[in-house]
Amino acid sequence: MMEHIATTPFGGGRMSARLFVRQREAAERQEKLRAGEGGNDSGRADKWQLMRALTEARQAYGIGDRTISVLEALISFTTARELDGTVPIIVFPSNRELSVRARGMAPATIRRHLAALVEAGMIFRRDSANGKRYCRRDEKGVLEDAFGFDLAPLALRAGEIFEAAEAARAEDRAIRALRSEVTLHQRDIAKIIACALEEGRAGDWLDLSERLTALVFGLGRRTSPDILAARRDDLQHLRTEVENAYLSSLSEQEMSGNDLHTEHHIQNSKSDLTFEINGRETNTGEAAHAEGRAPEQKVAVSLDRLMRICPEIADYAKGGVRSWADLLAAAELARSMLGISPDAWRKAKAAMGNQAAAVVIAILLERGETIRSPGGYLRNLTEKAGRSAFSIYPMLQALERAQG
After folding, report:
1. Neighbouring residues of 387: CB distance < 8 A, sequence distance ≥ 6
2. Which CATH number is 17-156 given?
3. How far apart are CA 387 and CA 141, in angstroms?
4. Which helix (H) or strand (E) holds 275?
5. 83-102 core/surface letters (b: 16 or more CB in 10 A; e: else)
6. Domain locations in the chain as residue ranges
């Protein structure tokens, strides 16, 4: 091991207290690691895995992609795949060779990024007396001394960098999910409003459209998570208002979901169906609460429009589809014909709601030739519904466009 390593920068470079402390801490840690006192921390890491992790976590360290490129060029001068931070890892490329491996980057630009790497604590400068980068070997060719850039600080921070990369990935997943929610709410609201205007429904749809435009104005790739979350919440409220407005515009026939076509028609003043749970009569809303699930949610699409888009489901209803209850009964039969298991069907209804699940079955019938595994397709949609990342409206819209 080299006993004497220059720590102060050559020429006009200034020595700072922070740099001195970093070098001292690194030297002390190297001594502990060599003495076997590092615990689970070995001070070693695969250099390319470490570079990938640092690329993902670069914002946490205040370095950019071009600075990462310079560091990658420096690492390419090491022969071993693993960086061993227990000893100095000094590379000493010429300016010309470093520029070549940095994809032709100008020397002045390279110097700026090298300074950024030193500032971020990823490398140390080990300058010679004249500022040249070189190594000195004994008569047997064994390395005695080297001057250039020390990569040991990067290896010593491997554990920290991997944790920062994992945190960056988790944050990225959360932001992507948030953007997806915003996009789905925006799309569904816009299509429900468009549908209402197309069908001439009563309601202040133009005002709702203007409010939607105001909520999505200015959203882009650089929008902060806080703003996205606030817009997501506002869009959820607006979506509820739009869906309620659409449902309110439907006729009693279109809204009917409780019609029972039996020999004896029984009228009930309650809006929910009644049945027995544990020996006592209760309604569907109370049952949903008792079972720990939300009451049935109606979809904001008229039955007439649905049947125009998905007419094949009517073949599975004895007397045709005249109500949502007819549609649910037809979907129950059609799902078995599609090879969808009872378990998959039960989970789909629990995640989406009965009406939305029935609409999906109707869509699957229309797209039968293009979907190889209806059961797998439904399970995928069920999983999305569980993450609030599912909507029937884009599916209906796409099917409607495909039909011309």
Report:
1. 177
2. 1.10.10.10
3. 62
4. strand 274-277
5. bbbbebbbbbbeeeebbebb
6. 17-156, 173-249, 258-297, 301-404
**Any idea what the Cα angle at residue 164 is, between residues 158 and 170, rounded to 5°?**
140
Phi and psi torsions of 143, nearest 5°: -65, 125
Closest CA to 205 of 186, 183, 219, 189: 189
Residue 89 token pair = 């890892």
Residue labelled with tokens 């309110």: 248
List the chain pLDDT tens, one digit each, 404 residues.
444 444 655 544 565 667 767 777 777 787 888 877 766 778 889 999 999 999 999 999 999 999 999 999 999 999 899 999 888 888 888 888 999 999 899 989 999 999 899 888 899 888 776 667 777 777 766 666 778 889 999 999 999 999 999 999 999 999 999 998 998 999 899 889 888 887 888 888 889 989 998 998 888 888 889 999 999 999 999 999 999 898 888 876 666 644 433 333 333 333 333 333 333 333 434 444 444 444 456 778 888 889 999 999 998 988 889 889 999 999 999 998 888 999 999 999 999 999 999 999 999 998 877 888 888 899 999 998 888 788 888 888 888 888 86
How much is the pTM? 0.59
| Structure-token pair, residue 282 | 């209760």
Residue in 50, 44, 126 with CA at minimum distance from that of residue 86: 44
Tokens of 39: 């615990």
**From CA 357, how far away is CA 371, in angstroms rounded?**
17
Q: How far apart are CA 398 and CA 199, in angstroms?
A: 18
